[in-house]
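Could you help me review a protein record that somebody else here produced? This is what I was given.
***
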Amino acid sequence: MLPLKDSIPSERAPLVNGVIIVVCAAVFLFELTLGRRLDLFVQAFSFVPARFFHPGAFDTTLVFNLKTLVFSMFMHGGWLHLIGNMWFLWVFGDNVEDALGHVRYVLFYLVCGTAAALGQALVAPGSLVPMVGASGAIAGVLGAYLVWYPWARVKTLVFVVFFVTIIEIPAPFFLIFWFIMQFFSGTLSLAAATSGGGVAFFAHIGGFVAGAGIAWWLKSSGAVRPYPRIARW
């Protein structure tokens, strides 16, 4: 399933959301220019769980590892990786930024991305596989959207074998289904764990849970009060 558009209009321009998309695209285009130097760039700026949990063995510092936690959120491993992440952020991020405001949205995004990376790292603390991508932070955005906009609906492109159609579904159904798929895929990935790369499903899970938890806390404390808006297409 691919989300095309949600039904909740935002009250203010999603400036931070747009900046994140532009920065991620710019970093990826820069990666494409590196050629043989790309491996060195990835090693220098990606998040590697083993370096985080065993800094002495890699002669790294806490500052270095925190830097890679942030920088890795803006790196991507291919066109589909980049476009898929940015598309989800474009569809769901504007309303979350609208609820939080620009400054708090930056902090929220970085916290969710950090929680996502650590969630994956805890599953494989000795992994030497570099982690890159914004999907963990974006999963946090999805979690917040679920908590704050449960009445929303999403126009969705659905693929069933050779049949393709567009349907309108409740946002909770789409987001919970997405989370369940990440959970089962992550569980299966543990059974078939290899030393190679792949999708960091537990980063998605960790980011989603962190985003939903923060959103629930902010809503229950009155710090964020998203209100029903007239759905429109």
In short: The mean pLDDT is 89.
